[in-house]
Amino acid sequence: MSGCTNCGSKTGCDDRKGGMFDALDQTLARLYPSRTWGERDELVGLDAGLDADDVAALAEELATELSAATFVRPGGADETCDYIYVLCMGRPPCAVQVRDHGVAPPAEWSTGGVSELYLRLCVSHVARMVGVQEVAIDVTVDADGIAIRERPRAGVYGAPLLRRMQRLVAILPAYDVVHLDFGEISGPPDGFTPGAWTSLYGGKPAIANYLFYAQPTTMIATAWLGREDAC
CB neighbours of 86 closer than 8 A, spacing ≥ 6? Predict the structure, then answer.
């Protein structure tokens, strides 16, 4: 696991994190005046994040600057973010294309599974904030269909991803967004109450759950494509 203890840029990073924490505190206070998950002030959050055109533009720029394929997935009805997947280990046509964009599975999948690594950007709808996670996606193929399992981590740790991660973070200020270190937003915010989250998932919601999505930050999600869907 890679960390920042021995990083030569640690002092500058600590300064940026101070600004990040200030922005987080102010944003959470505006969005959740009752300091309770699920009780967001919708007027404050309305159109406060990047719109679909901005997300598409960011994905296109990342593809060029990071020399990597990128894919946008709009958030679901219960999510307050859109996702940009940056393919770091693997090749198109990839699992995200097959799962989210109707692309036919590549022929080589028929001879076995595949594992891919991505940087996944969570682009908030309710604040100009972006969190980035490392996710692994594993594909398993059998006679009945294809299982696509997504395994997010609470941050970015894999060495092959770190150089792209650094370049990605340097691009974000041009879009007037705050980059959130996912490792710093995977715990609950001080002084907030979990509301209905505990009955849904158990425990307490992380800061990320107030800004991006409801599910736990490292929850594994599996999509199943039957043979008729995968053709």
Answer: 62, 63, 66, 68, 69, 70, 118, 119, 120, 121, 164, 168
